[in-house]
Amino acid sequence: MLTTWLAPGGAERQLVRLAGGLRECGWRVRVTSAMDLEPLGEKVLVEELAALGIPPRSLRIAPGAPSPRALPRLVRELREYRPHVLTSFMFHANLLGRLAAPLARVPVVVSSVRTDNFGGALRYRLLAATDGLAHATVANSRRVADALVSRGVVAPNRIHAIPNAVPATPPPADDELSALRAELGAPAGEFVWMAVGNLFEPKDYPTLLRAFARVVEAGAPGVLRIVGRGHLEDSLRALRAELGLQERVEFLGYRPDAARLLHAADAYVLSSQSEGAPNALMEAMLAGRAVVATSVGGVPELVRDGENGLIVPPRDPDALARGMLRVARAPAEERARMGEAARAAVVASHDPTAVVDRWEKLFEDLLIVNGGRSGAAR
Questions:
Q1: Membrane-spanning residues where (predicted)?
Q2: Are 296 and 309 found together in one domain?
Q3: Which of 48, 50, 111, 367 would bridge with 372, disulfide CB 3.0–4.6 Å?
Q4: Cα separation of 108 and 116, whole Å?
């Protein structure tokens, strides 16, 4: 399995879950990061893989511009390991894997695209030009899969949609819940909004901050806690000050326990302008939180407007504020009903065992068609 890097993120976490699930099913699994592991600020995924018995390897490429050394290094890695299937996650890994696999005579190549917007026309053209080098491309939602086909990036006969695997976390006991609320710095009785995601452009936190300012102005005060880190943090802190939200908005940085922390929130908000199938949104739904989310990527496949959450258009702070106000002003019983419906929806379609089974079937089918044999990689 090949990834661009192993910094904490949704795509990377899905790779780790898939790697662990496949290993439990008897597959030989190796995970390689194109980028060097040493500069990572947070190595939680590296540590998780090691704990699963899959210590990750690296092509030792420095972060930044692509390196011509990556291709020969990956070819050597593949020739040494001789995998039956090469699965890649994220754009650079997809492109690199497609180029290296034929040189190393890997029988089956499966790319995975985890978002509906991954960086402009040039990237779309490069993936379209190399589509024939992959035997299949997996999207994490039907909507993303359809977009890839309609844009000519992936041939219709090579696209597959397999959802993210999202394990449920047990709800905390009352005393632990109180401790989690205290960690959030939320006064007793204060309505707590939470958003989780790296502080990068696709998450569109400026729209969230502007929407939350409108919520406060409308007389529905609460607090907003944002979990994640990234290069936009300074500009977002400046916008928070400009909007007068210093007392109501806190940036919590990276939290490995974000899924557990969600139980302490009253509601969850997603303001993204592009997505695939957002992990944190699904974790919030599994925690039984009422959610307000933008209609991007696979979100409409998860959230049924008015039933298990609210859907609003992206890049529209007024619409997002209206959705947040509706949830904040709803009776607690209505929010609980919405949250329970949200939990049921995710449990029904994102069970980790069922997701790994679908990946296994895809691999086995491709191995048979392309000259391998089912079970050869075990």
A1: none
A2: yes
A3: 367
A4: 24
The range of the structural domain enclosing residue 156 comes to 2-165+351-369
For residue 314, the Cα-to-chain-centroid distance in whole angstroms is 18
Q: How far is CA 238 from CA 188, 202, 208, 213, 326, in A?
A: 28, 19, 14, 14, 28
Q: How far apart are CA 19 and CA 83, in angstroms?
A: 14
Return the SS3 of 255: coil
Q: Which helix (H) or strand (E) holds 93?
A: helix 91-104
* pLDDT score, position 65: 67
Tell me, what's the pLDDT at 367?
96
Asked if residue 212 and residue 129 are part of one domain, the reply reads no
Is there a domain that residue 196 lies in?
yes
Whether residue 188 is found in the same domain as residue 324 = yes
Q: What is the pLDDT of residues 172-187, one digit of tens each?
A: 888 888 889 888 888 7
Instruction: Name the region of 267 (left: φ>0; alpha: ψ -120 to 50; beta: rest).
Output: beta
Question: Does residue 62 share a domain with residue 136?
Answer: yes
**Residues 84 and 224 both lie in one domain:** no
* Residue 92 reports pLDDT greater than 70: yes
**Is residue 377 domain-resident?**
no
The structure's pTM equals 0.88
Q: What is the pLDDT of residue 41?
A: 67
- CATH number, domain of 10, equals 3.40.50.2000
Query: Does 118 or 153 have the greater pLDDT score?
Result: 153
190 and 131: one domain? no
pLDDT at position 127 over 90: yes
Answer yes or no: do 155 and 271 share one domain: no
Cβ neighbours of residue 153 closer than 8 Å, sequence gap 6 or more: 113, 124, 127, 128, 131
- How many C-beta atoms lie closer than 10 Å to residue 174's C-beta? 8
Neighbours of 348 (CB within 10 A): 9
Residues 133 and 277 in one domain: no
- In angstroms, rounded to a whole number, what is the distance separating the alpha carbons of residues 206 and 225? 14
Check residue 13 and report its DSSP letter: H
Q: What is the CA radius of gyration of the chain?
A: 21
Residue 376 lies in a domain: no
List the one residue out of 284, 227, 217 whose CA is nearest residue 250: 227
The yes-or-no verdict on residue 373 having pLDDT over 60 is no
